[in-house]
Amino acid sequence: MKLATYQTDDFYDEIFESDGRPRPCAQILLQKLRSLPEHQIFERQQAAERAFLKMGITFNVYGAEAGTEKIFPFDLIPRIVEASEWEWIERGLKQRIYALNLFINDVYHDQKIVKDGVVPGHVIQSAKSFRKSCMGLNPPRGIWCHITGTDLVRDRDGKIYVLEDNLRCPSGVSYVLENRRVMKQTLPQVFEQSRVRPVEDYPGQLLDMLQYLAPDAATYPRVALLTPGIYNSAYFEHSFLAQQMGIELVEGRDLCVVDGRLMMRTTKGFERVDVLYRRIDDDFLDPKAFRSDSVLGVPGILEAYKSGRVALVNAPGTGVADDKVCYAYVPAIIKYYLGEEAIIPNVPTYLCWEEKDRQYVLEHLGQLVVKSANESGGYGMLIGPHSTQEQRQEFDIRIRANPRDYIAQPTLSLSRVPVMVEDGFEGRHVDLRPYIVYGKSIYVLPGGLTRVALRKGSLVVNSSQGGGCKDTWVLSE
User: Fold this and answer.
1) Helices marked H in 108-172 — which ranges?
2) Taking a C-beta distance cutoff of 8 angstroms, is the pair 452, 416 a contact?
3) What is the rounded CA–CA span in Å between residue 131 and residue 138?
4) How many whole angstroms separate alpha carbon 403 and alpha carbon 29?
């Protein structure tokens, strides 16, 4: 195997030290890989890809030629996290989610954090996902952000940062579970020897949380998963999770509100739904409360929710906390509600609505990453060092026209992991999306989704922009 010529290229590598020595966590893996003939490694990679194809592990790219499903690119070399580092990450994520839940509850009630001058009121009021109709709302058990996907990155110096929070309909966890299944088949001996923490209990953790939220009168809670339908980019995940939990997969047309209760149409007539795990955005959830032209949601469901007759996951209005401008205030939010410093720091962030920051950003567009406050999937973003003059001019105009909608951050040298290429192995940049479930307690899935920028030199890991994924091994003590 051509690992002897692998170059870390002055980046932090998750598998190799800067001098080329294997990191302690990767020694078992590399010992096994070096013992295999090169053609066997590539054969196992191809076997993994065939397994993904057979299992139908796909995603949709909107606007793509042919506009249909693609197999999620997968690379055989895992990303490995030491037990001690994961313990720190887990503590930091629990702290962050607990504080964000308090923040969302405050936003829709007294807004003490605004009155105390910690977060400007106009930042909240102008957030695209702030919902006036949710003011005064009290979600079941006081929990708003039940499921979160928090994106982490590691810089050149090895330090880990939170890149962004995803609190509306975070996707990708199905790939974590299926990646693991494929890896256990492809490198079984290495997997067993490496003391990798399991991820298979995620559907059980998710179902426990959903049932915990059911109205008290529901002795045997009925749970369903609401999908926009087969043309949604994450439909595979919706159907996969529903199947794993043993719950119904429904579309808006399968549901209606009758006498203030959410009901599901079945061949036996109407059946009550107590908890709805909805994978559609607030805008499309209830045409009576949000977008009147939505055909994906259920008319009257928000009133049923407010009356306590059904639980919705995540709660409507939760997206205010993953607005990228609100993100910049999370360390202050943690300090305000918990009296603690943030365990995992944010990436340093410039707010274009502030004149001093905006001037700096406009003068340094070629050096910064500029992001739209409410875009996702790698869209609405300028990566300064890789941009053209024309692109920088376009963002200059956008920022000046609507400064509230843009933030900027330094261009981080994201850590890398080896990937298999045609003639050997090369480093590619990665991030990590752990998944956090907030029910009776806060559960963090060990590892999460490692997304990898498969294009050489690219910093964009999103699948919609040509990225792929790797299995993430969190080691036991």
Assistant:
1) 112-115, 121-125
2) no
3) 14
4) 48
Beta-carbon contacts of residue 263 (< 8 Å; ≥ 6 apart)? 255, 256, 257, 270, 271, 272, 273
46: which 2 tokens? 């191809």
3-state secondary structure of 278: strand
Closest of 416, 419, 451 to residue 433, by C-alpha: 451
Burial bucket for residue 219 (CB in 10 Å: 0-12, 13-18, 19+) = exposed
Helix/strand number for the chain, H first, E second: 14, 22
Which structure tokens are listed for 212? Answer: 């915990």
User: ∠309-134-146 over CA atoms, to 5°?
Assistant: 65
Token readout for 81 is: 């996290």
The pTM of this model reads: 0.94
The strand order across the sheet containing 350-351 reads 350-351, 406-410, 368-372, 381-383
* Cα gap 165→336, rounded to integer Å: 18
DSSP state of 344: S
Q: What tokens appear for 162 in the block?
A: 């939170």
Q: Let me know the angle formed at the C-alpha of 92 by 86 and 98, rounded to the nearest 5 degrees.
A: 135
Query: How many residues are given for the chain?
Result: 477
Nearest to 242 by CA among 231, 250, 234: 250
Q: Residues 189-214: pLDDT tens digits?
A: 898 899 999 999 999 999 999 999 99
What stretches of 352-394 adopt beta strand conformation (E)? 368-372, 381-383
pLDDT score recorded for residue 399: 97
| DSSP per residue, 350-379 | EETTSHHHHHHHHHTTTTEEEEETT--TT-
The token duo for 269 is: 């007539």
Contact in structure between 433 and 427 (CB atoms under 8 Å): no
Backbone angles phi, psi at 75, to 5 degrees: -115, 140
Task: Identify the three-state secondary structure at position 90.
Answer: helix
For residue range 36-50, what is the model confidence (pLDDT) as tens digits? 888 888 899 888 888
CA 243 to chain centre: 21
CB count within 10 Å of CB 156 equals: 12
| Cis-peptide into 462, omega within 30 deg | no
CA–CA separation, 127 and 161 (whole Å): 23
